[in-house]
Amino acid sequence: MSDFIKRPQIEVLSAADVDRRRYWSDDDKLRIVEESLVGHRQAAATARRHGICRSLLTTWRRQYRNGELGACPAVSFAPVTVTKGVSAPQENPVDPCLSPDCQVEIALPNGRRLIVPVGVDTEALARLLLVVDRQ
What we know:
Blueprint: H1 2-6, H2 26-37, H3 43-50, H4 54-65, E1 103-107, E2 113-117, H5 122-134
Antiparallel strand pairs: 1-2
Helix pairs in contact: 2-3, 2-4, 3-4
């Protein structure tokens, strides 16, 4: 009987009564991701504010960019800067800028910039934009 008293008591903890994971609706995910993309806000600060880990927010942001999270990102206008003063063509639809240094810079929503020559094929440009904007 003295041997029974000296043994430590064991307490069994069970997590069966509590949900192990939280489930986020697509609307909540979109709201959190869009908040993390506003201005120069850090993803870690946004994740802490909502009680999620930074890696989960990073996954949601990647899904948002790829169009896998709810709705696709909203289309917005991009600022355009004209670097050379070229007059508009009157009758001839051919581009008057034939020099090889005439280029267009495209700023993508993910922060990347793409510089292409003015005479680039539109189908090739569309394929290139899909690849560059996805990553």
